[in-house]
Task: structure prediction
Amino acid sequence: DMRGRITMANRACAEITGYAPAELVGMRVRGFLSEAALDKARQIRRRLLAGETVSEPYELEIIKRDGTAALLWLTPSLITSQGWPTGFQ
Result:
């Protein structure tokens, strides 16, 4: 959602993070990110909200439940409802 909370999670996300899908729902994305990764995610968020399309995947390091790091390649997009931003995927 627009506050950075996870609203939906699948098994692949669970396998990557070490959390069950039901545990992930409601968690804040920034809880998985280092400061550098959080800065990068914020830059991408600003671009999407400004109407840009992020077509090239970018690398983002997350911290898994067990404390180890995982590298993800993401191509995020803005989710809208009736023309208003509601979240990111």
